[in-house]
Amino acid sequence: MSESEKRQTLEALAALVRYHILTSTTRADSGHPTSALSAVELMTGLLFGGIFRYDIPRPRHPNNDRLIFSKGHAAPLLYALWAAAGALTEADLRTYRQFGSLLEGHPTTRLPYVEAATGSLGQGLSVGLGIALNAKHLDGLPYRTYVLLGDSEMAEGSQWEAIQIAASYGLNNLVGILDVNRLGQRGETQYGHDLSAYSLRVGAFGWKTMEIDGHSFPEIIDAYKAVFAETDRPVMIIAHTTKGKGVATLEDQDGWHGKALDEAQLQEALAGLGNIDRSIRGHIEPPEDKQPPMPLPGEYETKTNYEIGQAVPTRNAYGSALKRIYPGYPQLVSLDGEVSNSTRAKAFKEFYPERFFEMYIAEQNMVGAALGLSTRGKLPFVSTFGAFFTRAFDQIRMSQYSDANIKIVGSHAGVSIGQDGPSQMALEDIAMFRSILHSVVLYPADAVATEKLVEAAAGHPGIVYIRTHRGPTPVIYDDQASFAIGGSSVPRYSDEDTGTIVAAGVTLHEALAAHEMLKAEGTYMRVIDLYSVQPLDTQTLRRSAAQTRFFIEEISRNAIVRRVHEILRAQ
Amino acid sequence: MSESEKRQTLEALAALVRYHILTSTTRADSGHPTSALSAVELMTGLLFGGIFRYDIPRPRHPNNDRLIFSKGHAAPLLYALWAAAGALTEADLRTYRQFGSLLEGHPTTRLPYVEAATGSLGQGLSVGLGIALNAKHLDGLPYRTYVLLGDSEMAEGSQWEAIQIAASYGLNNLVGILDVNRLGQRGETQYGHDLSAYSLRVGAFGWKTMEIDGHSFPEIIDAYKAVFAETDRPVMIIAHTTKGKGVATLEDQDGWHGKALDEAQLQEALAGLGNIDRSIRGHIEPPEDKQPPMPLPGEYETKTNYEIGQAVPTRNAYGSALKRIYPGYPQLVSLDGEVSNSTRAKAFKEFYPERFFEMYIAEQNMVGAALGLSTRGKLPFVSTFGAFFTRAFDQIRMSQYSDANIKIVGSHAGVSIGQDGPSQMALEDIAMFRSILHSVVLYPADAVATEKLVEAAAGHPGIVYIRTHRGPTPVIYDDQASFAIGGSSVPRYSDEDTGTIVAAGVTLHEALAAHEMLKAEGTYMRVIDLYSVQPLDTQTLRRSAAQTRFFIEEISRNAIVRRVHEILRAQ
């Protein structure tokens, strides 16, 4: 094909993509057509201009280039592109925004061409960073990761975390495409059409930047080709675009964010597009068939090595477990927010430095990157102080819509860290993680339980949170004890139990002490170690409810004893 | 005093400050002496070098300059400075990190010289931004806000949100002091001692930057003086410092983060400091006595204006309430994350543009800035989609330790927004806000309840969250109905009630519909509108528990009816 024929094909595809954007949003009577229209050439050029490599029948092909719409509200464009590629039909597009459709208002991974769910702005670049990290620093694969960014979302700090860390890992396989269409949801963005405002900032962080006309195919294709020359810098293509491009009444107009055309407006808009050839399809070359390393799980030491009564911080057991189980979970990687000496991820890092990623004090990007690694089959364990995961709640929340397989380990739980003060204490972490649908929340009381539950977490697909302590707690379980997600342990029980003390983590040791104090008075109390805070072992709880007269949950031994006395006096 | 005498005084004060840092941390056997030592000259020069204006007996003086330790772990330095100023005694310093002391491991506002609690990194600059915004754009006061920053925390995205927004508001009264001591908690930072890495980035965002030797008083004082010349740019002083400065065995040494010296090491370190004059005191000039505007609450329309049955989104009532009550709450300001047309903060903005602050899509900084405004007596209402407040959970969490008086309003609650998809839905917001100690969580069902509860929130000191809907719900209350924090409403009840349906917000309308469906079958169900999710009206709940046989909580009318049928069959 000659250059001019190529150009004509791209123009025809762009018109078809616009046709799909406009018709699907009008049919749904909602969506964001204007935000989709501004990036039509940028994305059409990428997918169909000989740049993008993708095996359409095999969306999970390890060498496929990856495309993330960080500006998730441009979803109509994403769906239109895959329709133009022949991967979706017009019938599929008609389901856009309908209940049950894979084509949701913002992309989710229910659609196989979506790498990660987006829609909460400023998250796509971190996910892309994780995916690019996988290609460059783990699997040695040739794929590139392209992230479409909106100009408004550049105000999110998470973007700058990702920009900074991507540069420090030299991710020349990560490409940001910044669609500077000037208009946000409620008017002009901070920098309007000043492309240099973006290139100055992004360039200062160590990226290669290019400023282009985002509606000119030659400039677009040249920019993508220039990416190939980079060896150690990520690239940001900063494109001057027009919101609503291609529809005269919408172009560069305020007040059209997130609004579909009505039927009459649609007809007028379609007429303005000229002749649309709905039968043409864009061609995407598949990638080479290079296989990533696929290490098989090997044998590993399954025995833990502690003495009953030995004082060990559960965070130490976390580090030791990671190191111990890795041969059995060869996809395991560790990410930490510049506190690996405190979380004890350091124990893993020292043995497997190539599987450890320093993510610095930037928790949002760390969780986003972990999600990216997880989408490429890795098993990320992410650690910082439990308190600081509140920083990444939005990323954690969003990861549930991307079938995330990430293990989050928060240290320094609870008031027991004492004198460092409340800023360092994880107090809200259990409530936070429990609010995530299908998440698992584990709170082990000793080193053995921690080691076993780290292992259970590694084998459990999904989002798992493990809470560890800074200070030492005595080992109370031997290596034969078993711990399961959804399980519990009953370290003290008898047929004479009056009531039940429920505890987990550090409070279990208070419960055990209270048990002894009450036993000395002749009162037998059952003690349940409810280490699986979610899901809960309701069976054991119900059994105790039937067998004992009351339940107690308090944070100190004295409070437990006092409360039991009160209850017994009242009865 | 001659220049050389001034210099000698500063050197003597710096030695005294070092003495306090070392002795207090050794006495506590914990804390972060090395992170405090690196900034001794930077802070001694600021407070005692004729720059800082502060009326020590009146920490709440409206014209006091403000100092925030964003690197909160340098708390021993903060306390040592105020001791050197004569505001704290050596006896006070001896309580550092003791239970009950005002001198906590990381600063909190229990100590009157602390503007905001810090310790979770990357938050101080946003708080400072709010304080500076107050001086420049609200009260027209001459004070400056100084924020001490660590180099590691510059990786936090929240910093770049604050840096970007501070520049866009032209805050020449905001000064960042970046203590580049090269070493983080677990080794070297990303940029080590490369000051230009920071000045390039911060400068690209529109700040004036200066690179200085952070242990040279002449350079430090000159830098602070240069700030006075700026008219529309914030200033970042980027200082090359040495971690552990002043103690030969600690200087620039890795492995000494967050560790106190033992007694023998302390004695050696103190000997190295030379003669310490513990009697000298640094002088701080008080500020001028200019009064800020203190508008008195005026009269305002207390009646709302809706018809029963009228369909109104509760978000609309939020905007309308803000506008209506402002004359009665003249400290009210509105902050929004570039979605004021969706949250309806726009209704307030249109009438009172000078009280509205566009915070762009940067929720972390928005909440931090609101805290800063609140510390200066303003009454900030902060709005975005409820889902996106998860982005600022760490800032919300930390604000509870600064006695925050902020009202957070999250729109687009729940699954009822439907086709936009889960990324936009606030689903975890109630769990998140409930986890904050003493927080109030309100979820009104109609426009009248929303207006009344916005008013209740304005009058309630503390952290209040209000959840609003996108879609319209019918008005069910008349203007006479009263709504209180901790209250509830019982729109349907009779002496024959079999059970109780508990609901709030959009589900109340489902409960009312279910009530009618069941009444038609002869089953009377009480309906409680539990609009105050926290605190909960336990009295009303207990009364219903005594008067009816069971409670129901479901999200749809059909689910409620089905469940009531099941229960009645089983009984």
Describe the structure.
2 copies of one chain form a homodimer. Chain A is an alpha/beta fold and 571 residues long. Chain A has 3 domains: 267 residues, Rossmann fold (3-Layer(aba) Sandwich), CATH 3.40.50; 162 residues, Thiamin diphosphate (ThDP)-binding fold, Pyr/PP domains (Rossmann fold, 3-Layer(aba) Sandwich); 82 residues, Rossmann fold, CATH 3.40.50. Helices cover 37% and strands 15% of the residues of chain A. In chain A, the strands form 5 sheets. Chain A has a 7-stranded mixed sheet with strand order 10-9-11-12-14-13-19, with helices on both faces. In chain A, β2, α7 and β3 form a beta-alpha-beta unit. In chain A, α18 crosses α20. The longest helix of chain A has 26 residues. Chain A starts with a helix and ends with a helix. The model of chain A has no long low-confidence stretch (mean pLDDT 97). At the A-B interface, α7, α8, α12, α15 and α16 of A face α7, α8, α12, α15 and α16 of B.
Mean pLDDT across residues of chain A: 97
- Biggest chain contact: A-B, 72 and 72 residues
Q: Please identify, by name, the CATH architecture of the largest domain in chain A.
A: 3-Layer(aba) Sandwich
Straight-line distance between termini of chain A: 90 Å
Question: Helix content range of the residues of chain A, please?
Answer: 25-40%
CATH class of the largest domain in chain A: Alpha Beta
CATH superfamily of the largest domain in chain A: Thiamin diphosphate (ThDP)-binding fold, Pyr/PP domains
Strand residue content of chain A: 5-15%
Radius of gyration of chain A: 27 Å
CATH topology of the largest domain in chain A: Rossmann fold
Looking at the chains present, what oligomeric state does this protein adopt?
Answer: homodimer
**Shape, principal axes of CA atoms of chain A:** elongated
The largest beta-sheet of chain A arranges its strands as 10-9-11-12-14-13-19
Query: Quick one: how many beta strands of chain A?
Result: 20
Total count of helical runs of at least 4 residues of chain A: 20
**Domain module tally of chain A:** 3
By secondary-structure content and strand pairing, the structural class of chain A works out as alpha/beta
Q: Which regions of chain A contain 5 or more consecutive residues with pLDDT less than 50?
A: none
